[in-house]
Amino acid sequence: MEIKLRTKRQQLWFEIKQAKHLYILMAPFVILFFTFTIIPVFMSIGISFTNYNLLQSPNFIGFSNYLKLFLEDDVFIVALKNTLILAVVTGPVSYILAFVFAWLINELPRHLRSFMTLVFYAPSISGNAYLMWLIIFSGDAHGYLNAFLIQYGFIDQPMQWLTNPDSILPVIIVVQLWLSLGVSFLAFIAGLKGVDKTLYEAAAIDGVSNRWQELWYITLPSMKPQLLFGAVMQITTSLSIAEVSMQLVGFPSIEYAGHTIVTHLIDYGTVRFELGYASAIATLLCLIMLGLNLFVRKILRRVGE
Amino acid sequence: MQLENNLIIRESKLSKVKRLFTRKRNLNRSIWGDLGLLILLAAFGFFSAYPLIMTASNAFKPLDELFLFPPRLLPRNLTLGNFKDLFELIGNSWVPFSRYFFNTIFITMLGTAGHVIFASMCAYPLAKYKFPGKTLFFTLVVYSLMFTPYVTNIPNYIIITRLGLIDTVWAIVLPAVGSSLGLYLMKQFMEQIPDDLIESAKIDGASEYRIYWQIVMPLVKPAWVTLIILLFQRLWTNTGGTFIFSEEKKPLSYALTQIAQGSIERAGTIAAVSFIMMIVPVTFFIVSQSKVLETFSTSGMK
Lengths: 305, 302
Fold this sequence. Notes:
The complex is a heterodimer.
Chain A: H1 2-18, H2 20-47, E1 50-51, E2 59-60, H3 64-71, H4 74-106, H5 110-121, H6 132-136, H7 144-151, H8 165-179, H9 183-193, H10 197-205, H11 211-222, H12 224-239, H13 243-249, H14 261-271, H15 275-300
Helix pairs in contact in A: 2-15, 4-5, 4-8, 4-9, 4-12, 4-14, 8-13, 9-12, 12-15, 14-15
Chain B: H1 2-14, H2 16-19, H3 31-59, H4 63-66, H5 81-92, H6 97-128, H7 134-144, H8 153-162, H9 170-177, H10 180-190, H11 195-203, H12 208-219, H13 221-236, H14 252-260, H15 267-296
Helix pairs in contact in B: 3-15, 5-15, 6-9, 6-10, 6-13, 6-14, 7-10, 10-13, 11-12, 13-15, 14-15
């Protein structure tokens, strides 16, 4: 037993020595990745059990940050609710839209296809061009939407789209959807291009008679890997909506109607400097994201089976 | 079915325009279905493009045209006034405009170059070899795609302060260089390089480093372009946030968003700012679209 264990360890050591050059190649990235991504996650978990404000050294307070989060912090409950609503709406809708557009674009002739790809992808790489929505949704009669609705008699008075708690979430949803055809959209386009064309001909002979059957029996199963990748990207984005909310409806927004977990995190982390509490929010967000991702991945693996 | 196909063939002979809607290899398509979906696509395409077109056109509109209704898609009297106002506003700050510009160029170049080189150095062993720790590391990379960078912001601030990098460009550059999406895409893309190429180079006596630099790197140029675009966009719009507080070290997008913070009266200037911020990444994507798509064809997850 003793000997066997040793040889195993020696074998491992031998393999590590063999791969020496590979480790050297990987080292710079691995160091950066661990320093700025992996270690911070564990630090965040650690800090979340303390009372820390950067100036005084942290002291351990157990689960009280988490208890406070759920039992005392009403704003967090609002943020949690908003985040879930935003995620449940923008996540699936943007995912489906990204796929449907990619699928329709794929059938266009080459130049038109490149053009439409650009049209749909451009919003997500256009920096702060989404500020244009400030003018579209502007609360005075000059806002494009108000001007349009007044002109055609739908409303008499300009609507306060950005400051009315009832319309804040819908506005964020519209803008977020507009921004959401990003990396996953590109992955879908590329995935569709890669589907083996002969499969469609074979299927036509086998009795597949319309585009919906083609989609379900051939296209979707053939691009399952891209679908999984796209899901990860889309879930992560839909749960981390913050920038759009802060820029369009303000930070904090009226009656916290546009407050999300991430804006709550930013509030405690960079405004109030209650880092222990903020870390508890971050840890919770991280858990929600991982959980949801793994759950959706499990479901998507069954597509076409 | 038969009739429909005949119809499609006849139609496509008739006019070139109509041929846009059908393609010979698609056996299962009806003209009405195509037409309906095309209209749908056009409608959503307009929704997608409208704010960007308006941003571009507002950037060149004089003030009196900005609040006209219906808003004009194209300005009647083209003017560079908004850009002039913008440069005047920036010129009035005590840090010269060129300084912000230089900071952004420096951060973006350093970050993208570092990212492409380090991520591909790391991706090559992951894609082509088996060694202890590989599976564990790649699992961590995939998991890291599943949470937002906001989660790590506070610990990052602490780490960067401890490393003495706070208020230097490195506070922005280093975390960006180590971002995992680029590594993931690069590794997936490298997997399709034939093993024979690497084997034969090894037989010729090339070291791992030479194989990486002289054989693998030239083959993955499409992936470089993709990594550059993804990181470029992230760094180009980075305002420095809490990580850079000295005015003379702040990047361009900080200066621009400060100006854009104004109210609706500054709509023209805001549009000019947004136009500058969007035109660079968009142009970059137009030029490199086919390479980017090539990279994403291997992006799939198992």
